[in-house]
Write a structure and sequence with these properties.
The chain has about 425 residues and is an all-alpha fold. Helices cover about 70% and strands about 0% of the residues. The radius of gyration is 23 Å and the shape is globular.
């Protein structure tokens, strides 16, 4: 369906325009520095002092690996180019909107290359816009979503057909760049790379490239972290503080609820914690918080299990402001999100009958990307990078079901006997 190239381009342009209209930025009155977002503060530090440090606005805490480096580096480039006034913030918002729009415009082609058809990608992109997922220009989620989508398509091609070595090298480099925006995609990428290396007949140099090229891309950052902290840090070191902020005596399942309840005991909002981090050093502070979190989990297994269950439900059924399961006035967008999960499972089952590799690839992303988010407080943006792996299979199931229903409805009128009667 929809084989006309001009029609395809028109549809993609329409999706792009609709997404840009949906996420049209509002002019910001302030610059990025001092707003309290760790990503922006690190970008300001890079721009003004050429150091990746001081991610918390209240207190200068020194060298940091609190976040992956590329998004703060992008912010620093904007500040160097436009200054640290409102112009930088406005360009950042426009850039984020353009990235989201471009990603959604690519969905029809991506769905086709993942075995689900161009139409499924259209339905999935429109589904995103109907739900109205929130744009967050101060975080890297939109950029990671675009990179993960392209990476998944590249890996599917390597799985399905012989490719030149340069394409494998490009895929490995893309994986490394993705990890320097956010390291969470590492586990699904490694699983797919092992699958390719062990079960596909590809040259040895290509097998090595799948693992070595991403490592070479991230290695300068690993060296920097070792020089700064004298410990091996795999891109980010904030797991300890995030686990403790999410698993403690008064913690709730979500970031928003924790802040409302006064349970967000984090260096970004607690001066006492920020001073403690500065005095201990970021690495030692996170190690201590990790031990505190693990100790609390061990001594409070019931509450920890309950929090984990709530975060699991929140991740998949998107409950940022509370538990909608217990409410009566459920927004239509939430109802759509609730339907996505069972429909996506049905879509993956249907896809496995025609393209088992594509179905397995989507399932790997769905299973191996989110586990870390089951153990830290829920934030809606965490799911953005793999929404394609839910929305596309769900849309594939709907499009296939609609097509089969249409064919059954037409079948009686297409019989030769009725045709001779002029019906």
């Amino acid at each position: 369906m929809l084989k006309n190239p001009r029609l395809r381009i028109f549809i993609a342009a329409f999706i792009f325009a609709a997404a840009l209209y949906r996420y049209w930025p509002v002019e910001s009155p302030s610059g990025p520095c001092g707003l309290g977002y760790e990503s922006l503060e690190l970008g300001c530090s890079l721009a003004h002092h050429a150091t990746f440090s001081d991610p918390f606005s209240a207190v200068k805490t020194g060298p940091s690996a609190h976040l992956a480096p590329l998004f703060p580096a992008l912010i620093s480039l904007l500040i160097k180019w436009l200054g640290d006034g409102p112009a930088s913030t406005n360009v950042l918002e426009w850039l984020s909107a353009l990235v989201f729009a471009f990603q959604l415009a690519l969905w029809p082609w991506a769905a086709e290359r993942l075995g689900m058809g161009f139409v499924s990608g259209i339905i999935a992109a429109l589904g995103w816009l109907v739900v109205g997922f929130v744009l967050l220009p101060m975080w890297e989620a939109g950029y990671v979503a675009l990179l993960v989508l392209i990476l998944a398509v590249c890996l599917r091609r390597i799985l399905g057909e012989p490719v030149q070595a340069v394409f494998v090298f490009f895929t490995g480099a893309l994986a490394g760049i993705t990890l320097l925006f956010n390291p969470v995609p590492l586990l699904p990428y490694l699983a797919i790379a092992v699958w390719i290396a062990c079960l596909r007949r590809i040259p040895c140099v290509q097998r090595l490239a799948l693992f070595l090229v991403p490592f070479l891309v991230i290695s300068p950052w690993l060296v920097r972290n070792y020089q700064a902290f004298h410990h091996l840090i795999l891109i980010r070191d904030n797991l300890g503080v995030e686990l403790w902020s999410s698993n403690n005596p008064c913690a709730t399942f979500s970031f928003r609820n924790n802040r409302l309840a006064g349970c967000y005991d984090h260096p970004n909002e607690s001066a006492a914690e920020a001073y403690k981090l500065r005095d201990m050093g970021e690495y030692a502070y996170n190690r201590e918080k990790l031990q505190d979190a693990l100790r609390w989990m061990k001594t409070n297994p019931g509450k920890f299990a309950n929090l984990t269950n709530q975060r699991f439900l929140a991740f998949w059924f998107y409950t940022p402001g509370g538990n909608y399961f217990s409410g009566r006035n459920i927004p239509a967008s939430i109802l759509i999100i609730w339907a996505i999960v069972p429909l996506s499972l049905a879509g993956l089952w249907l896809l496995s009958k025609s393209d088992r590799d594509a179905a397995a690839l989507c399932l790997i992303w769905l299973v191996l990307f989110p586990p870390v988010y089951y153990f830290v407080e829920f934030v809606p943006r965490y799911r953005y990078p793999i929404l394609w792996a839910s929305l596309m299979p769900a849309s594939f199931f709907l499009s296939e079901a609609a097509q089969r229903i249409w064919q059954r409805l037409r079948k009686p009128y297409a019989s030769p006997e009725l045709a001779t009667r002029g019906l």
